[in-house]
Write a structure and sequence with these properties.
One of its GO terms (cellular component) is membrane. The chain is mostly helical. Helix content is 71%, strand content 0%.
Length: 343
């Protein structure tokens, strides 16, 4: 990259490309699953952690060995000495290309039956259901004639931009008082998560320094080793969440409460660390606990939204989550980070 601005532009472009999958993965998976297996949407967040772990381990390898020292200047740090982040992008980008080719050429996904029904494409719905029953050796008694006898959807959606359709999807999220309350709460939840996470990360190092905490040396090796450890610890969270959401006493809301409570307690405890070992241990525990919450809300959001407007509602949540992230970074950039007031 010739400049920092161009680097940020490229990051924005590939981040935008990845954003759509974030919403559609959970939505499509949920619509294909039998109700008894809906907990798998929560457990699917494990693959986030797997991806983060792979990236963390690659970062540890490349950034530790092919980066300038943290105290290097522009005069002493040359391109040949600072190829670590480039190698990391090359490798991760290459993995994405390979996965994309596999996805397009070898993994054939079909439309969900719910969406096809909404488009009056009953023949395709029937073919998909027959294929699923054959693949998984399940009995299937529905006939195409019986399916068509149930009537048609009057207002189908066409593949074109429509302001009326967008308004319809948005208003559908607030069609009843209870649904409107749930929608507002879940949207605020996503917004606050996006806002407070960067704020906590920005202020915490300065707070710990002001309290005399010894978090370890700031070498590239230690920094990226700790980062990789945190990502590995994050693998535990979705597994725990997937188990808890299917238990009678916890369910979705109980698991969210547990994830939030443990994350909050650990983050408050993290402000009192004094040694490098405490730094690594508590931060790894925070990564695991926060992934309990993230994994659950990732699945709970499309479940609680009405099926016809699920993608729209989920998209709004994710967009506001990113807006919250921008707000958090801006506050951290212009605020006095040396204050201990937020903690």
């Amino acid at each position: 990259m010739p400049s920092y601005v161009s680097f940020c532009a490229m990051v924005a472009i590939y981040s935008a490309g990845a954003g759509g999958n974030y919403i559609l993965d959970a939505t499509n998976f949920l619509e294909f699953l039998p109700v008894v297996y809906s907990w798998l949407v929560t457990a699917m967040a494990l693959w986030w952690a797997v991806g983060y772990t792979i990236a963390g381990l690659l970062a540890w390898a490349f950034m530790s060995n092919f980066s300038c020292d943290p105290d290097a200047t522009m005069e002493t740090c040359h391109r040949a000495q600072n190829m670590g982040w480039r190698y990391l992008h090359f490798t991760c980008g290459g993995l994405v290309i390979v996965m994309s080719i596999i996805r397009v050429l070898f993994i054939r996904m079909v439309h969900t039956p719910k969406w096809l029904i909404s488009q009056n494409r009953d023949d395709e719905v029937y073919q998909i259901l027959v294929g699923l029953s054959d693949k998984y050796n399940r009995s299937f008694k529905l006939t195409l004639e019986h399916l068509k006898s149930q009537g048609q959807v009057i207002n189908t959606e066409k593949s074109a931009w429509s302001k009326v359709r967008l308004v319809s999807h948005f208003s559908g999220l607030f069609s009843t008082r209870r649904l409107g309350y749930s929608t507002v709460v879940i949207i605020i939840n996503w917004l606050l998560i996006g806002t407070v996470s960067p704020l906590y990360g920005l202020f915490l190092p300065f707070y710990l320094k002001s309290q005399g905490a010894q978090t370890g040396d700031d070498s590239n090796y230690t920094t990226w080793r700790n980062y990789a450890i945190n990502q590995v610890a994050g693998l535990v969270g979705p597994v725990i969440a997937g188990f808890l959401v299917q238990t009678r006493w916890f369910g979705r809301r109980g698991t969210l409460a547990i994830g939030a409570a443990f994350t909050t307690a650990l983050q408050l405890g993290y402000t009192q660390i004094k040694t490098p070992a405490q730094n690594v241990g508590v931060s790894a525990a925070i990564s695991a606990a926060s992934n309990i919450y993230y994994g659950t809300i990732y699945a709970y959001t499309p479940e609680i939204l009405p099926a016809a407007h699920r993608a729209t509602g989920y998209a709004i949540c994710v967009v506001l989550n990113r807006v919250g992230g921008v707000i958090g970074v801006l506050v951290g950039s212009y605020a006095n980070v040396n204050t201990v007031a937020p903690l």
